[in-house]
Design a protein that fits this description.
single chain; 97 residues; alpha+beta; Glutaconate Coenzyme A-transferase; 3-stranded mixed beta sheet; two-stranded antiparallel sheet; 3 helices; 15% strand
């Protein structure tokens, strides 16, 4: 379990040990807004090169080894069901899928 800061170190360490899996667990929504978004609007904590496994209450998205296009579909699949259509539309309109 991590605390403030250090998530990149945590994920890299988890992925570097034999049979280690870097996992980030988060709720799919916060204040009725999707935690999975079609586009980032600010700095990120984890660069895409440090892909990992994302878990929400709606499923597991193993992003390791996937292309960007594959990651988009995989992440939409674990978003809250009421946000999936909007996310897919936004990704498609933005030329991401």
């Amino acid at each position: 379990m991590g605390a403030v800061g250090g998530i990149v170190d945590f994920l890299r360490a988890a992925g570097s040990v034999e049979r280690g899996v870097p996992i980030v667990a988060l709720p799919s929504v916060a204040r009725d807004r999707s935690r999975i978004v079609a586009q980032l609007s600010g700095p990120v904590s984890v660069p895409r090169a440090d892909s990992c496994v994302i878990v929400t209450e709606h499923g597991i998205a193993d992003l390791r080894g996937l292309s960007l296009k594959q990651r988009i579909g995989t992440m939409i699949a674990i978003a809250h069901p009421r946000h999936r259509e909007d996310l897919a539309r936004a990704a498609g309109d933005g030329g991401m899928i």
